Each structure stands twice: as C-alpha cells, then as structure tokens.
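re: the backbone from monday

yeah here it is again, tokenized this time
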C-alpha cells in the first residue's frame, strides 16, 4: 500500500470498525446547528439533546442563555450531546441539521466544552 493511501485506509477502517472519528492532527471538534434549520427542527433537537444530557448552562441567568434564540440554544444542546456521546460524526447528525466544526463556537462566558 502506498504512503498516500495509508491515511485514507485508516480513516475508512475506523468507520467500518465502528471507531470514533478523531482528526489526525488532534483538533477538537464541536457540533452546531445548521443556519438553514427551521424552528421546528431546532426545537426538536433541543428537546432530544436535553433529554439525554444536562442543559442547565442555557437556562435563564446561566452563561449560555444569551442570546436567547433557537439557533443558539439548539447549537449549545446539540454540542453538549455530541461531546457527551463521544464526538462521533453520527452524534451531530440530528436528521441532517447538525454541522461539525473545528472552530470553537464559545463566546463570552459560554464555553462549548
């Protein structure tokens, strides 16, 4: 096998073996809501994610409450779920309304950990 084909082979092996996708260079990833998502999808994502993980950080008076918008709260909830479940690409699908990013979406006192 050529040196160029080895990274691709290892990536495919990881997916077929049920492994977790971790970028080779060790970059951390986050899950956010796609800007094109409609309100009902965002609400469903919040309800689903928060039924599986603790979403207290986005309650009124907490660091991630503002801005008080569906896209913001959905992104926070989706990322909490994604991080808690192991950062697998399928943990950010949310019926194709999630987007994995390598840019940290944290802002102010709201940390997307």
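seq for it, each position gets an aa:
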């Amino acid at each position: 096998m050529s040196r160029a084909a080895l990274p691709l082979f290892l990536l495919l092996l990881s997916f077929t073996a049920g492994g977790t996708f971790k970028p080779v260079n060790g970059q951390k990833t986050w899950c956010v809501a796609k800007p094109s998502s409609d309100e009902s999808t965002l609400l469903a994502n919040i309800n689903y994610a928060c039924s599986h993980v603790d979403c207290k950080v986005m309650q009124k008076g907490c660091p991630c409450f503002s801005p008080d918008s569906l896209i913001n709260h959905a992104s926070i909830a989706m990322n909490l779920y994604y991080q808690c479940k192991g950062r697998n690409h399928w943990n950010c699908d949310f019926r194709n309304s999630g987007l994995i990013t390598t840019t940290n979406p944290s802002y102010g006192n709201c940390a997307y950990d």
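The beta strands are 30-33, 98-101. The first strand starts at residue 30 and ends at 33.
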